[in-house]
Amino acid sequence: MRSNSAKEVWEKDRRYFVHPYQHFASFDKTGSLVMKKGEGCRISDAEGNEYFDAVGGMWCTNIGLGREEMAEAIARQVVDLAYANPFVDMTNVPAAELSEKLAGLAPGDLNHVFYTGGGSTANDMAFRLVQFYQASRGTPDKKHILSHHDSYHGGTYFAASLSGKAGDRIPEFQFMTDIIHHLASPNLYRAPEGITTEGAFCDYLLQEMENKILEIGADKIAAFWAEPILGSGGVIVPPQGYNRRTFELCQKYDILYVADEVVTGFGRLGHWFVSKDLFDVQPDILVCAKGLTSGYLPLGACIFSDRIYDLISDDQDRCFAMGFTYSGHPVACAAALKNIEIMEREKLFDNVKEVGPYFRDQLHTLLDLPIVGDIRGDMFMMCVVNVRDKETKAFFSPEIDIGKWISDRAEKLGLIVRPSVDLNIMSPPLTMTKSDVDFVVSRLRQAIEQTMVDLKREGHWEG
User: Fold this and answer.
1) Which among 387, 354, 361 is positioned nearest to 270, based on CA atoms?
2) Which of 35, 165, 309, 331 has the lowest CB atom count within 10 Å?
3) 46 beta partners
4) What's the CA gap between 183 and 192, in Å, rounded?
5) In the predicted model, what is the mean pLDDT of residues 23-48?
6) For the residues of 402-428, what is the DSSP string, one character each?
7) CA neighbor of 187 nearest in space, from 354, 439, 380, 383
8) Which residue from 210, 225, 212, 209 is spatially nearest to 284, judged by alpha carbons?
9) 180-217, pLDDT tens digit by residue?
């Protein structure tokens, strides 16, 4: 692509493409960074500049970009059968084969798969399933849903309402507020004053959850939505034992447990799914997307238990009146099957388990920088928390958008990290090596150091 044609693409994008989370004033001035090519962990823009993509697209390019065998599998399926109606009593080969594969990978009796176009709609589907299940078992008053502050479950109406990121709940949008309740964020770094240990914080959170259940009434609560590690809300790792104990509360009070593994699924933490493997939780419903196809095509799935399926299907006259045109899309399912084959064949989870601790440890070396308050996450799911004052943990003013200051400078150094106000989030492809880690951490350190100099010069920070 010639330089002048790159500028033309930039201008077309600026004028016509409305981006997710677009900030109108700044976007109108600066537009987008136009990407042209990707291979492995690296992407190149239209001018030929190369970047290490430490964000992994959007938590999703797990096997890396530019895989020819993925292109071949997708092209072959397009030729064989590009689309088939999924409704009622018609299917296609990739959808059926992928369903069996997912049932085998998912923990316990999660043997039934409903396909969607992504994580948001998979969460919406799970909500509809929860409603259908509760009505079918004769408990239609169980309508209320528990979630978390700082959680993120998607952009559709229900998923956005379920999400608890404060920055997303802007006044221009409306949200479901009558049946969704947000519990405290399990963020140890921001534990209430006076709570000084992880165990005490866990006890505090569990007591709050039980109090909320008793306040609403267990006979009115349908489900609890949980991310094993909160992703877009800031890569928040709950206190040790928290996930298991919330599951036990759900068991005690007859509340369905929904695990949103859109981010944590398919290897980001070194396992297909982590609810059972890492946290000893057997979900009733598990939601996945992103790494399911490594971003090569859009696909999400809601996987649910035999117990739920057996109950909703015990009345043969019932009809599950819910569906999407692209449920079980044959090309997307073929991509997922090839993606899973690559993960298994190349033993990518072994790489995550070897490189992940090194990535975590090397990022922790950034804690010597005056504005780095916390490093959190695990394996290939990490976050740097930036603060104005390390002692008080005070944030910079939101108008400064410190995460963006750092990501802009990292970009000039050939590194892509994701800004989220005070945070810089990383979720690289599972193929990242230790030498890649050294590059990421050194460039991120340079970007933070440059940011501190610029903050001082412009009077935003005294140092």
Assistant:
1) 354
2) 35
3) none
4) 14
5) 92
6) HHHHHHHHHHHTTEE-EEETTEEEE--
7) 383
8) 225
9) 999 999 999 999 999 999 999 999 999 999 999 999 99
Residues shown for the chain = 463
Burial of 447 (0-12, 13-18, 19+ CB in 10 A): buried
Query: Which of these, 119, 106, 77, 72, lies nearest to 94 by C-alpha position?
Result: 77
Instruction: Please give the Cα distance from 327 to 325 (Å, whole number).
Output: 6
SS3 331: helix
For the chain, list the domains and their CATH numbers: 33-63+347-457 (3.90.1150.10), 69-345 (3.40.640.10)
Distance CA 385, CA 344 (A): 34
d(CA 110, CA 284): 7
pLDDT in tens, 308-365: 999 999 998 999 999 999 999 999 999 999 999 999 999 999 999 999 999 999 999 9
Record the pTM.
0.96
Contact call for residues 461 and 371 (beta carbons, < 8 A)? yes
* Residue 7 in this model has a pLDDT that exceeds 50: yes
Q: Which of 394, 364, 368 is nearest to 377 (CA)?
A: 364
Q: Answer yes or no: are the C-beta atoms of 198 and 240 closer than 8 Å.
A: yes
Angle formed at CA 71 by CA 69 and CA 73, multiple of 5 degrees: 70
Report angle CA 31, 33, 36 to the nearest 5 degrees: 135
pLDDT score recorded for residue 1 = 40
pLDDT greater than 80 at residue 5: yes
What mean pLDDT is reported for the chain? 96
Distance CA 127, CA 142 (A): 12
Asked whether the beta carbons of 52 and 60 are under 8 A apart, the reply is no
pLDDT at residue number 2:
46
Cβ atoms of residues 425 and 59 within 8 Å: no
Closest CA to 265 of 316, 321, 303, 308: 303
Instruction: Let me know: does 163 contact 153? Beta carbons within 8 Å.
Output: yes
User: In the structure encoding, which two tokens stand for residue 37, read together?
Assistant: 């090519």
User: What's phi and psi for 173, nearest 5 deg?
Assistant: -105, 155
Element (H, E) at 367: none
Name the nearest CA neighbour of 393 among 187, 168, 164.
Answer: 187
Confidence check: pLDDT of 3 > 70: no
CB 264 within 8 A of CB 88: no
Please check whether residue 111 is in contact with residue 306, taking contact to mean a CB–CB distance below 8 angstroms. Answer: yes
The one-letter code for the residue type at 436 is: D
> At residue 270, what is the residue type?
G
